[in-house]
Design brief:
Blueprint: E1 21-22, E2 24-30, H1 38-48, E3 56-63, E4 66-73, H2 76-79, H3 82-86, E5 92-98, E6 113-117, E7 120-130, H4 133-142, H5 152-162, H6 168-178, E8 181-189, E9 192-197, E10 206-210, E11 215-219, H7 223-228, E12 231-235, E13 240-245, E14 248-253, E15 262-263, H8 265-270, E16 276-277, E17 280-281, H9 282-296, E18 303-306, H10 312-322, E19 330-332, H11 345-349, H12 351-355, E20 356-358, H13 360-363, E21 367-372, H14 379-390, E22 395-400, E23 413-414, H15 422-425, H16 428-435, E24 439-442, H17 445-452, E25 457-458, H18 460-463
This protein binds iron/sulfur cluster.
Iron/sulfur cluster binds at residues 182, 202, 263-265, 409, 411, 413, 458-461.
Length: 487
């Protein structure tokens, strides 16, 4: 979900994060009868998707045709009172967690969003970015539409509401044929749960079922089905619309063309390793990336260390392939929030240690292979490698389990501006020197294709070649000064 600004006022300030950031997770439940503790089921689903967004969380409940929304700023555990959720009755919910840099932390942008239409109440939760939202919004404003939030999700909501006369399914399909971008959307409309995935399947969405109760679950990742006790049935296909109502689950398509460009970065970094996306096991993909990295070039080293959390599985794969033992050489603090404000420059320089601290007993006197998932700006890598040397590492060979990130993303992932991406302005030797490593290597794009199984994946941020060409400029939102500059 992106912030929309007037066409003439697109700023150029970008966030300072040193990781790409997912922008949302969605979760939904439907049963023809009331489901016991349905709001708490959504709470658990959101909890499993918390890594996809920590700014705000929301749950919209459908009870006898009426909707009720509870949402707020913060983590799932901060926004909801589980005792209060236990009192809620209903047969369907949609739920959402949102990522944001702190500059855009407003309740108005928290989801689900809702609106009244002749179809009744509509509630919507959205993961992804529209690449033509500014134009659509501008046009709708000229026609008299009023918007309450700065999000592109509200554009979708309004477009569906404006098409109400067509009936639910046609209103949604017609809207999907006008909007462009990467999106996975769950909606409650007129006692039905409706879900759509963008025509290229850029953003993920899967369907599960709790067989004992006949309850359907939709989620951004299958790890959220596990926590709900649901079995993964399948992924929603690109361009597919799912409608679940008292007659069961119905599938139809709003486009005929069968193309796929799923986000390859979901496998590298965003998704949890216990998720299965479009039939591929994320853990296996990451481990294989580590193996391929090891095959790309031999390194004489004593120990392989993974950068927690998303570098660990690739590091294990690297270790297995190379025969160099794996060891836990970095400890990650689990209890630090994302908006940790450090008051002085001295503390800010030490910030990386608050989150990742090297194990001197593992590192000292050793030649290490340090494996991370990706390199964005290079600022955190530089600090980490210095930490390793300060802890006694004699050599640091830095390996990245993804190709070089050279371009920004238009489809729902917050990356630094192209100018800030280290790989867009330096070659490997220069980057190696910049981050202070003894050697540096990235997974080749050819190897990534082989691991993922060929075509059918978006590689825009690696190659600069995007599956959709007509895109509006990205608006990167501000970070608070003094925040940790890495994820
Ligand atoms: S540009 Fe990169 S992050 Fe964005 S959808 Fe494509 S692969 Fe994913």
């Amino acid at each position: 979900m992106k912030k929309i600004i007037p066409l003439k006022e697109i700023p150029t300030d970008y966030n300072t994060s040193d990781k790409m950031e997912e922008e949302c997770g969605v979760f939904a439940v439907y049963n023809k009868d009331n489901v016991e503790n349905i709001a708490n089921l959504a709470y658990c689903g959101l909890f499993a998707l918390q890594h996809r967004g920590q700014e705000s969380a929301g749950i919209t409940l459908l009870n006898d045709g009426y909707i009720e929304t509870i949402k707020g700023m913060g983590l799932v555990s901060e926004v909801f009172d589980q005792d209060q959720l236990s009192t809620k009755v209903g047969n369907a919910v949609i739920a959402h967690v949102r990522y944001s840099t702190t500059g855009s932390s407003t309740l108005a942008n928290a989801q689900p969003l809702s609106a009244r239409s002749i179809l009744g109440d509509i509630a919507l939760a959205h993961n992804g970015n529209l690449v033509n939202a500014n134009r659509l919004r501008h046009q709708m404003e000229l026609e008299g539409n009023v918007f309450q939030s700065s999000s592109d999700s509200e554009v979708i909501l309004n477009m569906i509401a404006r098409r109400s006369k067509m009936g639910i399914e046609e209103a949604v399909k017609d809207t999907c044929n006008v909007v462009s971008g990467g999106y996975a959307i769950v909606m409650l409309i007129a006692r039905k749960l409706v879900a759509v995935r963008d025509p290229l399947g850029i953003r993920p969405l899967c369907i599960g079922k709790i067989h004992e109760t006949g309850t359907y679950i939709l989620a951004s990742e299958s790890c959220a089905l596990d926590i709900a006790g649901a079995e993964l049935i399948r992924d929603v296909n690109p361009g597919e619309m799912i409608v679940i109502d008292e007659n069961g689950l119905h599938s139809s398509y709003y486009i005929q063309e069968k193309k796929r460009a799923s986000c390859s970065f979901e496998y590298i970094y965003f998704a949890r390793p216990d998720s299965i996306l479009d039939g591929q096991d994320v853990y296996h993909v990451r481990g294989t990336a580590g193996r391929y990295l090891a095959r790309q070039g031999k390194v004489d080293a004593d120990v392989v260390i993974g950068v927690p959390d998303s570098g660990i599985v690739a590091a294990i794969g690297y270790s297995e392939e190379s025969g160099i033992p794996y060891s836990m050489g970095l400890v990650r603090s689990k209890y630090m929030g994302r908006s940790f404000i450090l008051p002085t420059q001295q503390l800010r320089e030490q910030a990386v240690k608050l989150k990742l601290n090297p194990m001197r007993q593992v590192v000292s006197g050793k030649r290490i292979v340090l494996v991370d998932d990706s390199l964005v700006r290079g600022t955190t890598a530089k600090k980490l490698i210095k930490l390793m040397r300060d802890a006694g590492a004699t050599e640091v060979h830095f390996r990245l389990a993804s190709p070089m990130v050279k371009s920004e993303c238009f489809f729902g992932v917050d990356i630094s501006s192209k100018e800030e991406l280290i790989a867009s302005k330096m070659n490997i030797e220069q980057m190696c020197k910049e981050v202070g490593a003894d050697s540096l290597d990235f997974l080749s794009i050819e190897n990534q294709r082989e691991i993922l199984g060929g075509d059918g994946f978006c590689e825009g941020c690696f190659t600069g070649s995007y599956p959709i060409n007509d895109v509006e400029p990205i608006v990167h939102e501000d970070h608070v000064q003094g925040m940790l500059d890495f994820e």
